[in-house]
Design brief:
single chain, 385 residues, alpha+beta, Butyryl-Coa Dehydrogenase, subunit A, domain 1, Butyryl-CoA Dehydrogenase, subunit A, domain 2, Butyryl-CoA Dehydrogenase, subunit A, domain 3, 3 domains, four-stranded mixed β-sheet, four-stranded antiparallel β-sheet, 12 helices, 10 strands, binds flavin-adenine dinucleotide
């Protein structure tokens, strides 16, 4: 019913690994808002976080759909890949746009687990979705850049050795296009923490290890600039399709876990002398969530297929993200409703998954912005922002 046809061996192996991390493990971390270090270490040791790193750098050199299968199975098992998923897609920017020295310096150590590249600093408090209005500035000073500014929602910053950072290197009023003058840096965080970087955790409705990050004249060696100065926005954009497809796969995994849980509870819970699942009012929301999940799953696969064949997949990656996030949100609603009062009790894990999957209506891109993309770029309607 929920079996995917592709990457069966990887899926089975991920599922076996996830069995070591049951609901009790996640509930305890959730209550403490603590990072799942053991889980992330187990995934790293098994090589899953290096799925997309080429073999020459010590990774598995597999396809995006293999990485999607890994993340989907993690969520499907009731675990939460949000603790480490960024490493899979952030690494792509270094791989595609970094120079040989940067790749040799970082990728093998990321693949081995010696370094974690979990932090991605794009969003700022005053610019929000309007990325090109960001204000964090990197000023060239000899063989360094000096960084001042602030990021918000920089998830996993406290649990990462490296951060991929987007900052302005030319003021916005001095560039021809607003997308120009932004640059990407790879920041060694331990070093930066000793020289002007500070991190403040933000407590959120789910356990996500997200933070605010402040840069007070942080010096970054110029050799840590990725690609050309001023072209950073293009580099970040080039990774977004992969990010959207991978997050969509996680949402499919969440939806499967929630639907399975709802259908099973509906068959077990007896009220008025029969299973609640015998009532169509209980069945149909679960069945509808299942149908929508399967449709979204097809779009995720289509987006991954286009991505892997080197074709433009902007529209499909966006649609996959939106439809999969909608499917997991719908499944979460159906699941908590099916459980009645018990859905709100922590020990069922339903309320935790409900909170965790709700994020994907907003991050890494909100549904409205996906609809705006489709309206403008696919349907040719006027630009709205
Ligand atoms: C838990 C969490 C983790 C995150 N992790 C990271 C991370 O690791 N790195 C990182 O860089 N960012 C991260 N983000 C940030 C995330 O990508 C942003 O929250 C998201 O892009 C939305 O930006 P915003 O919060 O500033 O909302 P805003 O841009 O302020 O938007 C608010 C609302 O207005 C709507 N809106 C805005 N403009 C328009 C428009 N033109 N048309 C229609 N609707 C519009 C949006 O859809 C949204 O619903 C994270 C966020 C959260 C909550």
């Amino acid at each position: 019913m929920f079996e995917a046809e592709d990457h069966r061996e990887i899926r089975q192996a991920v599922r076996r690994l996830c069995e070591q991390f049951p609901g009790t493990y996640w509930r305890k971390l959730d209550a403490d808002r603590a990072y799942p270090t053991d889980f992330v270490n187990a995934l790293t040791e098994a090589g899953y976080l290096a799925t997309l790193i080429p073999e020459e750098y010590g990774g598995a050199g597999l396809t995006l759909s293999a990485a999607a299968a890994v993340l989907e199975e993690i969520q499907r098992a009731g675990c939460n890949g949000a603790a480490c998923h960024a490493q899979m897609y952030v690494m792509g920017t270094v791989l595609r746009h970094g120079d040989d020295g940067q790749k040799a310096r970082y990728l093998p150590r990321i693949a081995s687990g010696e370094l974690r590249l979990q932090a991605f600093g794009v969003t700022e408090p005053t610019s929000g979705t309007d990325t090109t209005s960001l204000r964090t500035f990197a000023r060239r000073d000899g063989e360094h850049y000096v960084i001042n500014g602030q990021k918000i929602w920089t998830s996993r910053a406290e649990h990462s050795d490296l951060m991929l950072l987007l900052a302005r290197t030319t003021p916005r009023d001095q560039v021809a296009r607003r997308t120009d003058g932004l640059s990407v840096f790879i920041l060694e965080m331990r070093e930066a923490l000793r020289g002007g970087l500070s991190i403040r955790p933000i407590r959120t409705m789910m356990n996500h290890s997200t933070t605010e990050v402040f840069f007070d004249s942080v010096r970054v060696p110029a050799e840590n600039l990725i690609g050309e100065e001023g072209s950073g926005f293009r580099y970040i954009l080039s990774g977004m399709n992969a990010e959207r497809i991978l997050i969509a796969a996680e949402c499919i995994g969440d939806a499967k876990w929630l639907i399975e849980k709802a259908a099973s509870y509906a068959g077990e819970r007896n009220v008025f002398g029969r299973p609640i699942g015998a009532n169509q009012g209980v069945q149909f929301p679960i069945a509808r969530a299942y149908a929508n999940m399967r449709a979204a799953e097809l779009m995720v696969k289509e987006a991954a297929r286009l991505y892997e064949s080197g074709k433009d997949c902007g529209a499909e990656a966006n649609m996959a993200k939106m439809l999969a996030a909608d499917a997991s949100n719908e499944a979460a609603n159906a699941c908590i409703q099916t459980h009645g009062g018990f859905g709100f009790a922590e020990e069922y894990d339903v309320e935790r998954k409900f909170r965790e999957t709700r994020l994907y209506q907003v991050a890494p891109i909100s549904t409205n912005l996906i609809l705006a993309y489709l309206s403008e770029h696919v349907l040719g309607m006027p630009r709205s922002y």
